[in-house]
Specification:
This protein is an alpha/beta fold and 291 residues long. The chain has helices spanning 32-42, 57-60, 63-70, 78-89, 106-113, 120-127, 192-204, 224-244, 250-255, 268-288, and strands at 13-16, 22-25, 47-51, 73-77, 130-132, 145-149, 158-162, 167-171, 212-215, 221-222. The chain has ten helices and ten strands. The N and C termini lie far apart (43 Å).
Length: 291
């Protein structure tokens, strides 16, 4: 991945089918280095399809070049396609004044707001070939790869479950040590934290003891059910922290919460993500109190 964008790398997965083709899950960043790595891994194999777990550039950015080279169809969840359409119309900037953000921090947040959804319009117009639905089986001969809708990180994020092989391709939904950002896919009609808790339940039940997760970042891991429980507990604790806060604005509440790396080190995109999640937790608290 480009320096300064988060984890050092994202994972692309190649799935062999019974007809000698490979199917690519998350072709990675649009950088020359990432494209070369993926091309070397594929070699001379025919590419049957390109599945994108969600719209972010570090997962979907390489889809256009790979599609042009191989003529393989690019697919993503129908809910993500709808989100891309909303993004193409325009993503409203967060109301930083209402959040109580100090004026000297607003410029960096305005710049960060467009980063996750920047490639969306181009993706819809030039790259996307079709959509997938919940519980759909992919056209991958010799395998039963089922689509699991897991909205939260983005509104149409998906995972892929290969029950027979005991594999779950998790994208950015469940990572082994990182707490994924939520609500990073443009405007939504639902609360991303509430969506995330429901999506964690949906994936946890798939783990009957031998499931191996293949995440979008970091290394493959087991213990999906336990990891889902840990992630859910993290957000439920955060909701309780927000409920107990006496802060009057999102900024005041967020600055008093417990952040993994500390509040003072947050800046740009990570700061914006923290503020957004704080606003989402406040909405859940207000809903619970009937406000």
């Amino acid at each position: 991945m480009p320096p300064g964008t988060g984890p050092a790398f994202s994972n692309a997965y190649l799935i062999d089918d019974a007809d000698g083709r490979v199917h690519v899950v998350d072709p990675g960043s649009p950088t020359a280095e990432a494209r070369a790595a993926l091309s070397a891994a594929i070699g001379e194999a025919a590419v049957g399809s390109i599945v994108v777990t969600h719209l972010h550039a570090d997962h979907a950015g390489g889809a256009g070049a790979l599609r042009e080279r191989t003529d393989a169809r690019v697919l993503l969840h129908e809910r993500e396609r709808a989100a891309l359409g909303r993004i193409a119309i325009g993503v409203p900037a967060p109301d930083l004044e209402a959040w109580g953000v100090p004026e000297d921090r607003r410029t960096e947040l305005v710049a960060a707001a467009a980063v996750p959804t920047a490639p969306a319009a181009e993706f819809v117009d030039e790259v996307l070939d079709g959509v997938l639905t919940d519980a759909q089986l992919l056209d991958v001969p010799g395998r039963r790869l089922r689509v699991i809708g897991t909205p939260a990180h983005t509104d149409g994020h998906l995972c892929l479950h290969d029950e027979e092989a005991g594999l779950l391709f998790t994208g950015d939904h469940v990572l082994p040590t990182i707490n994924p950002g939520l609500g990073l896919g443009g405007p939504t009609d639902t609360n991303p934290i509430a969506d995330y808790l429901a999506s964690l339940d949906r994936t946890a039940v798939l783990d009957t003891g031998a499931l191996r997760a293949l995440p979008g970042h970091e290394d493959p891991f087991t213990g999906v059910r336990e990891r889902c429980a840990t992630l859910a507990a993290h957000h439920l604790r955060r909701t309780e922290e927000v409920a107990a806060s006496t802060g009057a604005t999102v900024w005041e509440v967020a600055s008093g919460l417990t952040w993994t790396g500390g509040w003072d080190v947050l800046g740009g995109f990570t700061l914006l993500s923290a503020l957004r999640q704080t606003a989402q937790h406040r909405e859940l608290v207000a809903r619970r109190r009937g406000i």
